[in-house]
UniProtKB/TrEMBL annotation:
Naturally occurring in which organism (per UniProt): Actinoplanes palleronii
Residues of the PPM-type phosphatase domain: 295-517
Protein's name according to its UniProt entry: Uncharacterized protein
InterPro entries recorded: Bact_Sigma-Reg, GAF, GAF-like_dom_sf, PPM-type-like_dom_sf, PPM-type_phosphatase-like_dom
Keyword terms: Hydrolase
Amino acid sequence: MATPALLRAVFDAAAEAMLLCSAEDDTVLLANPAAIALVPGLAPGGPLAEAPLPALVTAAAAGDDSFRSDHHHRFLYGMRRDLDAAHYAWYLRDHTDERDRTVALEAERARAAFLADAGRRLSASLHLRLVLRTTVELAVEHLADAAVVVLPPAKRQSGWIRLLPGHPVEEGTLAERNLADVPGLVEALDGFPPIPSRWLDPAQAPGWLFPAALGPIGALLVIPLPGNAEPAGALILARTGTRTFQEDDEALTRVFASRAGAALAAAGLYRDQVDVTEVLQADLLPPELPETEGFELAGSYQAASDVLRIGGDFYEVFGPSGASTDTMIALGDVCGTGPEAAVLTGKVRQTLRALRVVQAGPETMLRVLNQALTESGRSQRFVTLVVGSVSRAEQGRVRLELASGGHPPPLVLRTDGTVEEVPARGTLIGVLPKTTVHPATAELAPGELCLLYSDGLTEARGGPTGAEQFGEDRLRRALADCAGLPGAVTLERLRQLVSDWLHGGASDDIAMLAVRARTRPPLSLRGGGVPNQSPYLMTNRRADRRVRPRA
């Protein structure tokens, strides 16, 4: 049988902290060294109610079988076990390491969740102001009491955005000379490594940085926002009162700053690309049509890409130049769609403008343009094109001299609804060294219209099967139904019919240009003559004389 001395030795040698207590008067009979080391000041012989561990005293008084307690920076856990009718024991365990690991794991999960949310929100938009706003909002939500983002100076000015708790986001500009007022800001905007917050004196922060409403600043942190090969800006964080930035805070802020900087750089690059695109589009979009005397002009353009709004189809109008009183018109189609086609479209339009300055006629324009494209030394997409001159003729009529380079022939809509084809023919532009051009002349009586269009109109696929082309016959019937309508109304009606035919499907670029002779009032309204009878009614029966090829 084990002796009391042996049992005492085993009790003292146990690694787990233990207290042996009397069930009669709750006296601490024994406390092994592990228990005394865990709870300094604990000694056997005294009542449990006087133990230097308040959580133990409270649990014993309440008759609880366990307790948890933060004691002298340690996290302790206690369990009571009855041994016999006269004795019971308290087992004490130190769970500080487990608690610290749990806290660290939860903190890491919170940091990971914050960075994941930041990445999602920062990448949700390429709008620079929205990314700036998101940056300061995330910073105030998770990192500091107030945040400011300062952009690199441009033209001696820096843009900034600021967020204070309970206040709306503020924006403004700052003179470059004032950047040095904030310690570490100039270095951060130059892309130098972040300065530890303990080196920055919050008292040096200027009044314009954070207003007095924020309260006394306890800590200041200035972090670069790294961009694409150059800084995207700087992030300034402030904590009020006695709160400071720890090393973990600075490390998390640097990771956040790298993501915010990348988002700002992407948004800035997108803004620059949009600015360039808008400049280029301004010269590639269809021109405003001039006011003309004796006839009206109407245009319609629909690019295959709604994003770019430019493509391979175009129309152009040049007013009278020099000694010429004619108006020049052109409508063309560069093979393909998108930016590549738009680039060649711009070249073609610039060439036509230059030829107009030297008063070249339609045939000459096509031949020179073909020569310019074929002799460029590069593989070019081909172009189909109709070029014409519009002039006023006698008795309110309008004459069109048209030349075509592989383009669908223009259509003429008479006042009685008859649709005629202008027999202008020619080879593709930019394919063969020499081009063949067979021009034609068309005359319009008042109220009659000539339509120039690209093949995206007739080749639009849709209808009941979704694959049937709109076709020339359907176009002619639709155009015939527009007799007597203004040019702009006619083009809008055709555009709507094709849109309905597509049922929302994709289509090629579509360009249309209409020339319509202005309608003259009846003779009865102009004085004399027989009402409702016009000399132009006779000419409608002689279409073969008014639309004819030229030798």
